[in-house]
Design a protein that fits this description.
mainly alpha
Length: 153
């Protein structure tokens, strides 16, 4: 059975998520465990992992897109070469920082690598107007090489 405080917390979760987070942190810090909205707190903590995974998926897809542009979009290379290099460096740095904070997610990226590469192929084909067949079906490099700051295709 929910206490009155837990009911208020549940209501706050629906009306102002930010305040709910601040209040929950205070309750945890004060050891006021009876007032905590446990159901939503558990959902939020579980969602943290999903968000980290989605962020890394997005960053790796964008990195792969730019590597493919850099290697295969010949008619745009003259104008976009430096921009693509900057984006490649930026995505690698973000991925590196995220993996430093959660090293176990590198295994997850390895599992998703081929699917993310296929997504990147389709996105680059759409952006460039080049046929999908322009881009190799197999990844252009293994994950470790794709993440290597000194490698460009």
């Amino acid at each position: 059975m929910l206490t009155e405080s837990q009911k208020k917390q549940k209501q706050l979760y629906e009306t102002d998520h930010h305040i709910w987070v601040l209040e929950t942190v205070k309750q945890l810090q004060n050891g006021d465990f009876h007032s905590i909205d446990w159901e939503n707190l558990i959902d939020e903590v579980s969602d943290l992992s999903r968000r980290e995974k989605r962020r890394l998926e997005s960053l790796l897809t964008r990195l792969l897109e730019h590597l493919l542009k850099f290697r295969y979009w010949d008619c745009e290379r003259k104008w976009n070469h430096n921009h693509w290099k900057r984006e490649i460096r930026n995505f690698r740095k973000q991925i590196k920082k995220d993996l430093r904070a959660s090293p176990s997610l590198k295994g997850y990226l390895s599992e998703q690598f081929v699917e993310l590469y296929q997504d990147a192929r389709e996105l680059v084909s759409d952006a460039s107007g080049l046929p999908l067949s322009t881009f190799p079906e197999e990844p252009i490099a293994p994950l470790d090489q794709v993440l290597d700051e000194n490698w460009l295709p």
